[in-house]
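Morning. Coffee machine broken again, so started the prediction first thing and wrote up yesterday's gels while waiting. Chain of 137 residues, entered below exactly as on the submission form.
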Amino acid sequence: MSITALVARRSTCLRRQVGAVAVRDRRILATGYNGVPVGLPHCLDTGCLRADSNIPSGERHELCRGLHAEQNVIIQAAYHGISIRDATLYSTTFPCSICAKMLINAGIKIIYYQQGYADKLSQEMFGLSEIELIRVD
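Came back before lunch.
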């Protein structure tokens, strides 16, 4: 989890810094943090679209210029041709419902997380999946 927290420090999000690391057989497969796509202006420079629109945390995930840390883990693994099937994901924050769908389909088996997240649908989907969820203090 300490590596995951270090990855989160790279985030350029004004509201929340999140880091995620995919691991299998004690080897790091991919890392991700929340932020805008490559080459686009960072929220640090342009401001936060969600804050400007008064969008509460856990709602309207699509109204954000950034990608979530978990999404970036999946994208980075795919970009470099690395399978994350049967991997463990470490995340500083419980995944949202969009990330939950992606992680389920990517074949993640265990998720360790530190902070909760206000997304009831995410919790419901994980409850129906075979992914083991472990909260770490």
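The longest helix spans residues 69-79. Going to sketch it on the whiteboard this afternoon.
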